[in-house]
Amino acid sequence: MSSSTQTSAAGAATEAPARNRRVRRLTGRDRIVLGIMVAVPTLIQLTLVWIPTLLSIALSFTRWNGLDLADIKPAGAANYQFVAEDYPPFWPAVQHNVLWLVFLAVIATPLGLLLAVLLDQQIKGSKIYQSIFFTPVMLSLALIGIIWQLFYNRDNGLLNFLLGTAGTPAAVDWFGDSSVNIWAALFAATWRHAGYVMILYLAGLKGVDPSLREAAALDGANATQTFFRVVFPAMRPVNIVIIVITIIESLRAFDIVYVINRGTNGLELISALVIQNLVGEGQVIGVGSALAVILLVISLVPITWYLARTFNKGAAE
Amino acid sequence: MSIPVATPAETVHAAVPVGSKRKRHYGTHIFLTVMAVIWLIPLVWSLFTALRPKADTDKYGYFSLQGTFNFDNFIQAWSQGGFSRYFWNSVLITVPTVLLTLFFASLMAFAVSRFNWKFNITLLVMFTAGNLLPPQVLAAPLFEMFKHFNLPYWFSDSGNLLNTYISVIAVDMAFQIGFVTFVLSNYMKALSADLTEAALVDGASVWTQYWSIIMPLTRPALAAMATLEVIFIYNDFFWPLLFIQSGDRLPVTTAINNLQGNFLSNYNLIAAGAMITAIPTLIIYVILQRHFVAGLTLGSSKG
Predict the structure, then answer these.
(1) pLDDT in tens, B56-76
(2) Alpha helices in chain A (DSSP H)
(3) Are residues A144 and A214 both part of a single domain?
(4) N or C terminus: which one in chain B shows less Cβ crowding within 10 Å?
(5) What gap in Å lies between CA B50 and CA A267, rounded to an integer?
(6) A222 and A108 both lie in a single domain
(7) Of B259, B256, B42, which Cα lies nearest the Cα of A188?
């Protein structure tokens, strides 16, 4: 790895003589140091992220119980066929992941944006409001699951008390009832996501050139027009990041449902199904990997979109 | 392109004529207050429950104000739940992970941002993409890789890398290096080329440029990343769940999953345990809020 980067580095330097930071002028020792600086993190990244990703793809076409390496048998696309046709939790999980994405995109993210816009004005106590909305972002999703469990509890939870149903047969076990628990989990996830979006948009709003707003005001635009036609488009870099975060978060959603009931009974998510097939007695590595690859392929769409935008722009500069 | 995000704030606010919009904010305040109350309810409810003895909640019910308020549940949860051990486990995982992540990411960021060579963009893309993958995608291969990585029993009682902190530290680090490299390289790119150019003319080695020139100037970004990563790693639930089988080796965030089983349905103790787990992050938030927010926005400002 290091030797190849060094030779190519020298090549790049001759191609771009205008740049000051030419590798060619470095001594042999410096090149070795630079090679190590690149090689070690790259090796870590390859061994623990990219090679496992490729292995996931490979394992998804095999049948294996996870015990002896010699037992790995080719299975063709059988795992994918099984997942799509004979694995009952799969399609509910896909629906829940889509619902998660739609909920975050339609409720949580706009709520975060709204909070940011309101708090960006000069209002009293803006810092206090920000601190309150931001606090859940500091907490782990596992802890959020537990805190909301106390709130949602059937007999002793605050929500049933506030609704007046506590202690009556009408009391709802918000995390246990499979017809409502996905919504209950989504509210808990929103609690964290909206604060996260808010803080990113607050930074984004502060980065918008004030002269843009002044120009819009001079042209007679009202506050709503100014925001949607001038300020919001000007925050394009932040918007892209938020879109990616929203999509990725909805694919990564795992901790909350795992804490509640390991992702079963109304809370199936693809990520949780991957783990259910990997741990425990009946290890079905092939099926788990097929689910992981499905998750990977979906994730690569927003990741590629984001990277293309980020690095194409960077290269053009 | 990154740190400047924080600075224009003052100029923006200075430019807006003070008082011109003041009177129109009643509706905003009502909305924000309602939202803030809703936001605080789950936390306040947990704290309220945690502060009440079980005997009182049994007697008066959970929805009452009678009875005493004290920290007995915290003390009992701490000792009965084994929190001192879990916190120590969290320290053993978080400290090496954050230090190694910052070190390796700064090396990589320095190499790709201060020198011009063919594959630096390619590698940076690869690093950034790796950080965005859902961890579950890698779960099976990593678990099996570690399980089949044989070690002597004096080193690991499982005979392989499972159930060791090394496995959690290595994977947490590999995942976070991508993000930190991305942020630090943007920061380092913004530093003037003349700084290292002059050093190069003076015959300073690459290592000297990195350690004595670039790293000290990157300190604000490093502080922000360190704060952010401490929170990220402390809050990581998934990797210890996958790799560590012995309950007494779990870090606190993963261990709270067992809280409900350990404390049966003693909600007062569960609430106290939850609050104990939140305390370290809330302390960091109060003390280092600026760094934390800077870290989050550093990652997003370069779109």
Answers:
(1) 777 777 777 777 888 888 888
(2) 2-15, 28-45, 51-59, 78-86, 90-103, 109-120, 126-134, 141-152, 158-162, 181-206, 210-218, 223-225, 232-234, 236-252, 255-261, 270-278, 285-316
(3) yes
(4) N
(5) 28
(6) yes
(7) B42
- Number of folded domains that form chain A: 2
Answer yes or no: do A254 and A115 share one domain: yes
- Cβ neighbours of residue A226 closer than 8 Å, sequence gap 6 or more: A213, A216, A217
* A295 closest CA partner among A248, A263, A261, A259: A248
Does one domain contain both A28 and A139? no
| Residue A212 belongs to domain spanning | 90-267
Distance CA A48, CA B175 (A): 8
Give the 3-state secondary structure of B146-209. HHCCECCCCCCCCCECCCCHHHHHHHHHHHHHHHHHHHHHHHHHCCCHHHHHHHHHCCCCHHHH
Where a domain ends, among A231, A249, A267? Answer: A267
Residue entry with tokens 């000297």: B208
In whole angstroms, how far apart are CA A270 and each of A78, A247, A291, A298? Answer: 18, 14, 7, 11
Non-local (6+) Cβ contacts of A91 within 8 A are none
Residue written as token pair 């843009």? A212
Residue B277 Cα, gap to closest chain A Cα (Å) = 8
Residue A214 located in a structural domain? yes
Q: Inter-chain contact B205–A29, Cβ cutoff 8 Å? A: yes
Answer yes or no: are the C-beta atoms of B213 and B278 closer than 8 Å.
no
Contact across the interface for A69 and B148, Cβ inside 8 Å: yes
Nearest Cα residue to B137 out of A77, A56, A80: A56
User: What's the mean pLDDT in A140-152?
Assistant: 89
B residues 84-103 lying closer than 8 A (beta carbon) to A: none
Buried b (16+ CB within 10 A) or exposed e, A111-142: bbbbbbbbbbbbbeeeeebbebbbbbbbbbbb
Are B241 and B254 spatial neighbours (Cβ–Cβ below 8 Å)?
Answer: yes
Give the span between the Cα atoms of A310 and A314, in whole angstroms.
Answer: 6
Taking only the tens place, the pLDDT of each residue in B145-164 is 888 888 888 787 877 888 88
Q: Determine which helix (DSSP H) or strand (DSSP E) holds B290, and give its type and residue range.
A: helix B267-301
- Predicted confidence (pLDDT) at residue B15 exceeds the cutoff of 80: no
Q: Within a domain: residue A175?
A: yes
Distance CA B161, CA B245 (A): 11
Centre a 10 Å sphere on the Cβ of residue A54 and count the other Cβ atoms it contains. Answer: 11
A140: nearest CB among B16, B253, B302: B253
Cβ atoms of residues A286 and B124 within 8 Å:
no
Question: What is the pLDDT confidence band of residue A23, given thresholds at 50, 70 and 90?
Answer: low
Q: Are A66 and A285 in contact (CB under 8 A)?
A: yes
State whether A44 and B237 contact (CB < 8 Å). no
Q: What is the number of CB-based contacts under 8 A between chain A and chain B?
A: 334
